[in-house]
Amino acid sequence: MSYLERIRRPADLRQLSPAELDVLAKEVRDFLVTAVARTGGHMGPNLGVVELTIALHRVFDSPRDRVVFDTGHQAYVHKLLTGRQDFGDLRHRGGLSGYPSRAESDHDIVENSHASTALSWADGIAKANQLRGLGDRSVVAVIGDGALTGGMAWEALNNIADGQDRSVVIVVNDNGRSYAPTIGGLARHLDALRTTPHYEKVLDWGKRTLQRSGPPGRMAFEALHGMKKGLKDVIAPQGLFEGLGIKYVGPIDGHDIGEVEMALRRAKAFGGPVIVHAITQKGRGYTPAETDVVDRFHAVGVIHPETGLPVAPSRFGWTSVFAEEIVEIGRRRSDVVALTAAMLAPVGLAPFAEEFPDRVFDVGIAEQHAVTSAAGMAFAGLHPVVALYATFLNRGYDQLLMDVALHRAGVTFVLDRSGLTGDDGASHNGMWDMALLRTVPGLRLAAPRDEPTLRAALRDAVAVEDGPTVVRYPKGAVPDALPAVGRQGSVDVLARHGGVPRVLVVGVGVMAHTAVEVGVALDAQGIGSTVVDPRWVLPVSEDLVSLAGQHDLVVVVEDGLASAGIGSALRDALAAAGADVPVRCHGIPLRFLEHASRAQLVEEFHLRGPDIARETAAAVAALAPERQDPAVRLRPTGR
Length: 639
Ligand SMILES: Cc1ncc(C[n+]2csc(CCOP(=O)(O)OP(=O)(O)O)c2C)c(N)n1
Ligand SMILES: CC(=O)[C@@H](O)[C@H](O)COP(=O)(O)O
Ligand SMILES: [Mg+2]
What we know:
The protein is an alpha/beta fold. Helices cover 40% and strands 15% of the residues.
């Protein structure tokens, strides 16, 4: 039996000798490479925290002590050490989540995989522990150098520093990278620390004790403190954290279990806020990851474990189309610049950065800053394109509303991974964007259905200079082009079935393909329909409203919240126009979604063409008699 198999719970780790722990670390790495190659997942981040996580669970007594992982994509080792070693269905329905999950284990606390929240969680837990008389329990937050660039992390540090009598241990897992190398002043600061002689090895760890132990101790402390001041020019960088009032320990070698353990024990004993700065290597121990120049195998699909090569080529077709088109646009328009929140390659901006290095800005994991700084750029004469995953726009909603829209700034938002993304679970589905953006005055949103409409939407979006524009598209491969058979005003007509079309089927974005299937299936049941794609879905156009008014029933199929998306916006617009036409909305239900494949979720939510057609046919049959007779059906009362 391997050492890994013998670890049923963290306490088992404490039985192993240093040599056995090294063997365990190797077993964990081998396990990760084999398992993650089979399912896909966060390979590089987890390979980098093997020793760190082993040491954490030897020093702290989880779940009595609380260990919070920021973002949570680096929690696979934690899972392995807390009784979860069946990775066969990792990120698949019914299998382990790719993030901490309370349903899986008491050792898991934070499921939110939006970055930079762990320090606030830790601050809150520590405050509650103190008030409830549980102040002897440690609270540990593990945060990456990338996540530390997020504003929330700094808001939390400011607060944690105020609780000198609360034990919060902040482990900075510094691998120098987010996906790509982490940017900015903080990254430079950490870099400087990395190359600084070990500060805490120079100074006496006991100085806090000395300071508390009467006059002789205090004198000794003053001497040490003076020494520290004298050393300041050489070892000044840690001043950033210590200046805030948070003790800094490090830098330590995050791959040396003994060294990490010693630092953590000292941090635990300290009894106040401490930062333990651990230097790690993303992708450690797996050559394809260690040598990968793009992102050290941050998140991979299914790969061949021996080579690291993908089993299926190009998972991200929509991203590639955007990547090409934005370069084309950039060539024509020197005022177009691009912003990314630490995701240059994943959002498709790498080719743009290569051709226009001065016109692309990686702001760190700082979506809020990205949005407001884009407003500033627009004010000063540029046209910024802010490229984000749809779910991360949630972070910048207020900035979009107040800084961009209120100021009518010409900023384009490109939302990749919109709609159901599936395997990353609850917090990664891009299902909130349309519901949120509906509430932004003056905002225009396009949902392209294929490659030509994506290219056209981007070109149109960057031409708008008097307010925000948004282009959203999903994760995965681009479906075949779906040409329009006609146009009704601004609306693309994709199909017409039957002499008297009774149903207007509206497909939003990629769901236009499903809408076409619905039309065909209705036709087979003798129900005429018009199938359309409005392309620009926000605000709801007058053309769409008037088209809807010419039908007995409207069916909207969208890859967003059914209760608050384009269908419900169209229903409101019809009501405002006095048109009495029922609207049926087919989309994502209002709940947090467990990880599963996109196809499984589409099936579960009855979003496949035949399912929607069946429900639509039943709805047509249930229409009031006068609506069922095309000759006498109600017409809209006009706008
Ligand atoms: C708010 C937010 N924006 C973007 C992301 C996407 N994202 C996931 S991990 C990651 C990089 C994290 O870097 P770091 O914290 O250093 O962790 P590492 O992967 O290097 O261990 C990013 C940008 C996210 N999870 N949350
Ligand atoms: C943790 C995180 O936010 C990303 O790493 C995400 O898991 C990647 O998703 P894609 O594979 O869709 O780029
Ligand atoms: Mg990092």
